[in-house]
From TrEMBL:
Belongs to the SMCO4 family. Keywords: Coiled coil, Membrane, Transmembrane, Transmembrane helix. InterPro entries: DUF4519. It is found in: Membrane. It is a single-pass membrane protein. GO terms for cellular component: membrane. This is Single-pass membrane and coiled-coil domain-containing protein 4 homolog. The keyword Hydrolase does not apply. It comes from Manduca sexta (Tobacco hawkmoth). Signal peptide: none annotated. Residues 1-20 are annotated as: Disordered. Residues 7-20 have a biased composition (Basic and acidic residues). The chain crosses the membrane at residues 29-50.
Length: 60
């Protein structure tokens, strides 16, 4: 039997599974990655705020 040159065509089932996995990854981006990035950004902002706020001077 001869071997065909080029990539193997994917079946309809494989294509459907690949699309489902892609949709699942896209949903994970919205439910896991974005909130995590937002939390890290808030921590950085809080740290910068605390380090740069003016300190009260006490005169003795």
């Amino acid at each position: 039997m001869r071997k065909l040159k080029g990539p193997v065509k994917e079946t309809a089932k494989q294509k459907r599974e690949r699309k489902q996995e892609f949709a699942k990854m896209r949903q994970q981006i919205h439910t896991v990655v974005l909130p995590t990035c937002a939390f890290i950004f808030m921590l950085i902002c809080f740290y910068v705020y605390v380090k740069t706020r003016p300190t009260t001077m006490q005169y003795a």
